[in-house]
Design goal:
The protein is of the alpha+beta class. The protein has eight helices and 14 strands. Helix content is 22%, strand content 35%. The chain is globular and about 50 Å long.
């Protein structure tokens, strides 16, 4: 029943050949009795992808794990996460309730998101991001251990090759393109991009990012679709950067409903 509802809520194809083998391999490599904290949809997909491996894991899950207005409910989620070995989520469906709330004028104010989404690098290490078509969707974290290397955190000041002045403002009337020289420290790593932005429209822009090798051959494409509030607020995007990526050609496609969009700040966290 859960899966039927999930598929009814999204038109995206989650069973493409490229995604299933990688998901199954990750599940098979996860030791039995590993305690996984996740959202209900992600758990349902795990049982579809590899039932035997999924049954061997210990699960803590809720339908909404992104935010809670009620303090007691939020603390329960924090406790479940704190007790887990791994933290997984399905990006599109984790954001679903929050995005629908944002469509109503009386629910557009940014909400307080849980710490494992707000600052995951403090306790969690991003280990895999699997894409459906070009969309990064299935996200896997492991508990950060004392012996793990610290994450690399890059701010705009550490990215002189990115020709982007902050705050960056677009009016949505045309496409915008830029070329980003990919720093060597990010190549071959899963990364989280945190942005602080605002717009009159919930999902104002689609970012198409083509990673290119030194000869200019396309390695892969990802599409990023940030969720944006009318007031400045944080969103987080995740992806894996190919090891041979020398530069990234990005195109920003704005929705026709966008009247204003402002990117105030961002940082990149690489594990």
């Amino acid at each position: 029943l859960v899966l039927v509802l999930i598929l009814a809520l999204t038109s995206r194809e989650y069973f493409t050949a490229g995604c299933v083998p990688e998901f199954r391999a990750y599940l098979a490599a996860t030791p039995p009795l590993t305690h996984v904290f996740t959202d209900r949809a992600m758990r349902a997909y795990a049982f579809l992808m590899h039932p035997r491996a999924a049954r061997s894991l210990a699960w803590s899950y809720r339908t909404n794990i992104l935010e809670r207005d009620d303090e007691a409910e939020r603390q329960e989620l924090e406790s479940l996460a704190a007790a887990a070995d791994e933290f997984w989520y399905l990006r599109k469906l984790v954001w679903l309730r929050h995005r629908k709330d944002m469509l109503y004028r009386d629910k557009t104010a940014p909400k307080t998101i849980t710490s494992y989404f707000d600052q995951p690098e403090l306790a969690w290490r991003l280990v895999r991001v699997l894409s459906v078509d070009d969309n990064p969707e299935f996200v896997f974290h492991r508990r950060r251990r004392p012996e793990d290397p610290k994450p690399e955190i890059l701010t705009p000041a550490a990215l002189p090759g990115l020709a982007l002045q902050l705050p960056a403002v677009w009016d949505g009337r045309s496409s915008n393109r830029l070329i980003w020289p990919v720093p060597e420290v990010l190549r071959g790593r899963p990364v989280r991009i945190e942005i602080v932005s605002q717009s009159n429209y919930v999902q104002p822009v689609v970012v198409k990012a083509d990673f290119l090798n030194p000869s200019g051959r396309a390695l892969n494409r990802v599409e990023l679709k940030p969720h944006v509030h009318p007031a400045p607020a944080k969103d987080f995007l995740v992806l894996e950067i190919p090891p041979d990526a020398e530069r990234c050609a990005m195109e920003f496609l704005f929705d026709k409903a966008v009247k204003d969009f402002e990117l105030r700040d961002f940082r990149i966290i690489a594990d």
